[in-house]
Design goal:
Length: 188
Amino acid sequence: MPEDHRPRQIVVEVVSVKDMKPALGSKVEAVVQLKNSDSQPIQIPWGTDQRIIEQGQKQDSLQWEAGTFEFVLRKGKGQQVRLKSLTSWLHSSKFVPSSQLTIQPGQLVSALVSFKIEDEYQIDLRLKEGQWQLSAEWVQVGRTSHVKDCSVSNGYFHYDDFYQQQNPSITIHVIGQGTINQNLPKSR
């Protein structure tokens, strides 16, 4: 987190979806863009190898950050389903500068992501066929792990209030499992 502790403005948007009519339970690939809409640069984790968190640090006192994209379907008033993300977490450490990505004001990054058309919390009957608004969110956390006298102390700091996000949505049409996604002529 920057020293000024001032919230940063970002826009996280699903810009394309490989299958606009995915079936319930199916895996979906999409392209997501994260844009820095603030007047100050932001730094996000951008390393795919989790082992970077150990580089340059004492094994008994680790600090790192992690980030990922999460996905939400919305329909009507208040109906919302958080989807099961298949997108890996990205990691960074201040001791490995190449693991952090600095995004200047107005710049954006794109990522190929994947998720399942499945309720992350497995609550029956919330996710149904029909039109839904799909949006993506950026989630970032700070982590610490300290070991002293055979005791482990872990810290987890969520960036909820740090990134003030706009999350434009895209319309998808969820179909039932086993439904053929084609407009075939009817047989006689």
